[in-house]
Specification:
By secondary structure, the chain is of the alpha/beta class. The protein folds into two domains: 2-22 and 82-272, Rossmann fold (3-Layer(aba) Sandwich); 295-460, no CATH class. 62% of the residues lie in helices and 10% in strands. The strands form two sheets. Strands 2-3-1-4-5-6 form a six-stranded mixed sheet, sandwiched between helices. It has a two-stranded antiparallel ribbon with strand order 7-8. Strand 4, helix 8 (174-184) and strand 5 (190-194) form a beta-alpha-beta unit. The longest helix is centred in the middle third of the chain and has 47 residues, at 274-320.
Length: 461
């Protein structure tokens, strides 16, 4: 019974301390925020709400990061209700489920002699309170054979928890150490529990704890490395009857969890509800970065597909248009339309006039840097007039390739402009065009353009 008396006492102390340090209800927290007290709790909750409700996030990104978005929604609920989450992480069969069951006092989590019994993140309420509940999370093992997906789930669950209980049953293996590094990198409190400590003598146990503290140095504080026995092995005892006869009986020792329980409550008492706010803020910040990265990649991919399509359309239009010079005017209209579409992809829509001005700026820089190429383009167009169209077969492919390349370059430069928020930055448009040209293999681009145009023309005939 000592373990449960310790637990109840720790729970009462935590409730009394945190009641004075944090709003008792979400309504009180909101009232304080509205009154001008911009508490960290209010700030984090506002940040999470903004992340969930941001209309600028494309549906494709939300679907790709669906698990992370669910975690954010869960964290928001946690903050509003004052909940604290503890996740157990460890190697297969280290005894995570048994340890959590010992904390709960009943077999809520599945245990088995088979490896990999836990296949998803399950949770149970450890203690309930008007100020918020404490939840225990069980996770899959981190080194299951062909269990990379479940290991990733375990680490994801740990990343969203407020406190991580890392369970080992001996010295750390390479896989355990790597997982402990990943968990510690999330900057949340970690307790390293040596489970099945009853298998060792007292001297062996102390030496093993010393090795664990040494190997986990810099990742877990020495005070947070301790031993427990969630499901001690049965032991045989000799009973002596009144008549002096002896008989043998097998007994199941109670769980040896007191030190772990006291340490868990010690961390909760020290950190209080700030655990949830801090960890939610860190998680939201990382998710926001990931969302930004994915949106950037998604926009870039869409922008480049648009540019490729417009470049091919322009190349074909220039190649097949029998009217000299007029083909250049039509091509310029395509460039303006491309800019309009790119501006919408990046959420910075411009008018047709503004798009025309942007095209003029880029073309002016291209003309200065690639004057000879633009002269060939114009000469090829004029050659159609001088030959009555007879030279079209000779000039169309080359002129179309130049048109293709010019739109391709223009699209890349415009993409960079919109990616920077509709600004050239300190470098100005000339340097932006130069940067694209420096990375460009002109001959390869023109060869690709000619091949694409010929394929398009063959399909059309």
């Amino acid at each position: 019974m000592r373990i449960w008396r310790s637990l109840r006492g720790g729970w009462r102390k935590w409730r009394s301390r945190t009641a004075a340090a944090a709003p008792a209800t979400p309504a009180e927290a909101q009232t304080q925020g509205a009154a001008g007290e911009d508490t960290p709790l209010v700030q984090v909750r506002t940040s999470l709400e903004a992340l969930l409700d941001d209309p600028r996030v494309p549906e494709a990104v939300r679907e790709e990061l669906a698990d992370e978005y669910r975690s954010v929604a869960d964290m928001l609920d946690r903050l509003e209700n004052g909940h604290v989450y503890i996740a157990a992480v460890g190697r297969v069969s280290a005894g995570k489920s048994s340890l959590l069951n010992a904390l709960l006092g009943w077999p809520a989590f599945a245990t088995s002699a088979l490896h990999g019994e836990t296949r998803r993140a399950d949770r149970e309420v450890w203690r309930e309170s008007d100020d918020g509940h404490v939840f225990l999370y069980d996770t899959p093992g981190i080194d299951e054979v062909a269990g990379e997906g479940r290991e990733a789930l375990a680490l994801r669950t740990a990343a969203s928890a407020d406190l991580v209980l890392f369970v080992a049953d001996g010295d750390l293996t390479r896989g355990e150490y790597q997982a402990l590094q990943a968990v510690s990198a999330e900057r949340r409190p970690v307790i390293l529990a040596l489970n099945k400590a009853d298998r060792y003598t007292e001297d062996e146990r102390e030496r093993l704890l010393a090795r664990l503290r040494e190997h986990a140095a810099g990742l877990v504080g020495a005070a947070n490395v301790l031993a427990c026995a969630a499901d001690p092995a049965p032991r045989r005892v000799i009973l002596v009857d009144a008549d002096g006869s002896e008989r043998e009986r097998e007994e199941q020792p109670p769980p040896a969890m007191t030190d772990l329980v006291e340490r868990l409550w010690g961390v909760i008492e020290q950190e209080g509800k700030a655990l949830a706010a801090l960890n939610a803020g860190l998680f939201a910040s990382r998710l926001s970065d990931r969302v930004s990265e994915r949106i950037t990649v998604l926009r870039r991919d869409i922008a480049r597909r648009l540019t490729d399509a417009y470049a091919l359309g322009k190349g074909v239009a220039v190649a097949v248009n029998p009217v000299p010079v007029a083909d250049l005017a039509g091509a310029a209209a395509l460039d303006v339309t491309l800019i309009l579409h790119l501006s919408r992809v990046y959420g910075l829509p411009v008018t047709r006039r503004e798009a025309g001005r942007l095209v003029a700026v880029i073309v002016a820089q291209l003309s200065a840097l690639l004057g000879a190429v633009w002269s060939v383009n114009l000469f090829a167009s004029l050659a159609k007039l001088g030959t009555g169209g007879a030279a079209t077969a000779l000039t169309a492919s080359a002129q179309g390739a130049v048109g293709y390349a010019s739109t391709w370059i223009l699209g890349r430069v415009a993409e960079d402009y919109f990616r920077r928020g509709g600004s050239w930055g300190e470098r100005g448009p000339k340097r932006a065009v130069e940067a694209v040209l420096e990375e460009l293999d002109t001959e390869a681009l023109l060869a690709q353009a000619r091949a694409d145009i010929r394929r398009a023309l063959r399909k059309a005939t």
